[in-house]
Amino acid sequence: MTNYLLAGGGTAGHVNPLLALADEIKKRSASNKVYALGTAEGLEARLVPQRGYELITVPRLPMPRKLNGYLFKFPSLFIKSVKQVEEYIAKYKIDVVVGFGGYASAPAYRAAKKMGIPYVIHEANALPGYANRVGARNAAAVAVSFQSTKLPKATYLGMPIRQEIAGLDRAKNRATAAKFFNLDPTKTTLLVTGGSLGARRINQTIELSRPMLASAHIQVLHIVGDRAGLEALSEGNYHRITYCDRMDLALAAVDFAVARSGAATVSEFAAVGLPAVFVPYPVGNGEQRFNATDLVDTGAALLVEDSNFDQSYVEEILIPLVLDSARVKQMSSRAYELGIRDGAARLLDLVNGVLKV
């Protein structure tokens, strides 16, 4: 029996690979124990217990970026979080820590090092985050989702993907998936999603473009995000939902997608062979642009800047592309060729290699 502590969270992009690894751990041996470390405010507070795993928490401590009172409080708050994780490690007899970045990872790495147990890092994004850049220096092993990611000791393994997506047969499940969302499986269908938190530009542009999409007879499944302030709606070929707990069915129900290029989204689309137009999040360190590079370079996807994703783009680029079935099929094949569907198994092998399990 091995006791694993998986640290990460915040958005679905951090939580989903954590859960994928947790499922793989339990699949290998029911005697293994899995504990998830996150914050009470992140998406993990709902998704981890929903998946049947115990969530233990630390305070949400963003890295200070301004010269203010919080900057001077941060060191003592961080030390307190580290001590809290040390207590968790001792209480649950943790054998190894696996971190996915985010607020919970940094204190977990520090606590593991202080207590002399190995920790493994998985970096989802092409451009690594601060916690993983610092933590990689003393990690027992480092795994990355993209070949271009630069971290010490990095091993390219791909993204751990939930089995319901990794093993998804889109064609076989299309009719069932369409029925779940009240869609017509015979119609050309576009998925629009900005991720778990939504995307203002994408939502606004698609809302304004609804008449054009309707005239082109394109059915739309639009996931606006539960913070978008928009209500669910089903009107003609347009179907809006606020959040989707069954992304496997959403991926099976559609032919093409418009989405942010978060690491999990890019990896899941590739794994199932779903072609897309990616609209990178314009704020931050630009990692979303780089996440999509491999798919764009091989012709499996297009990339458009957030500021350029407007009604003209939908009319002149998106609609003709979605209706070009031969090109969509070609893009789908190229995406599938790049996809990694056993990332969770590869990561667990790396972790167990550190433990020599």
Structural class: alpha/beta
The CATH homologous superfamily of the largest domain corresponds to Glycogen Phosphorylase B
Instruction: Please tally the helical runs, counting DSSP H or I stretches of 4 or more residues.
Output: 16
**Measured on Cα atoms, how large is the radius of gyration?**
21 Å
Could you please say which CATH topology of the largest domain applies here? Answer: Rossmann fold
**Rough outline:** globular
Q: What level of helicity do the residues show?
A: 40-55%
Order of secondary-structure elements? EHEHEHEHEHEEHHEHHEEEHEHEHHEHHH
Q: What is the strand content?
A: 15-25%
Poorly predicted segments: none
Alpha-carbon distance between the termini?
9 Å
Reported for the largest beta sheet, the result is:
7 strands, parallel
Biggest sheet: strand arrangement:
3-2-1-4-5-6-7
Q: Report the top-level CATH class of the largest domain.
A: Alpha Beta
CATH architecture designation of the largest domain = 3-Layer(aba) Sandwich
Number of E-state strands: 14
What's the pLDDT, averaged over the residues? 93
